[in-house]
Write a structure and sequence with these properties.
111 residues, mainly alpha, 2 domains, 6 helices
């Protein structure tokens, strides 16, 4: 889901592509119909990831989400398992960083 969203983020902001196609009487573009569905039990982690993404250091490029931010999130929301949360966020973050680096390399940016 994360990889798909990052690779199609420009086209899917506010689903303007689908709205424009519908307005013209055209079918939904194939890349939108191929959008992965986020399972209900994963919405919490999805939202946590995007909230925690605001904590990443920015320098010559985007850095990884710090462990301390995840630990503070777990403490704030009184979650039972820091290790699991860290593992999930870290895995999502590695996909995020790789995709963002690919995009930057495509455009000749540093990062």
């Amino acid at each position: 889901m994360l990889r798909w969203q990052l690779s199609h983020s420009k086209e899917t902001e506010d689903d303007w592509v689908a709205k424009a196609a519908a307005k013209r009487g055209l079918g939904c573009p194939s890349f939108l119909s191929e959008r992965p569905k986020l399972k209900h039990h994963l919405i919490f982690y999805w939202n946590a990831f995007w909230t925690l993404s605001t904590c990443r250091p920015i320098g010559m490029g985007e850095g990884p989400i710090p462990w301390t931010s995840v630990a503070q999130y777990v403490e704030t929301y009184d979650l039972p398992d820091l290790d699991s949360m860290w593992s999930i966020i870290q895995n999502m973050d590695s996909v995020y960083i790789k995709e963002r680096q690919k995009e930057a390399n495509k455009h000749g940016e540093r990062g």
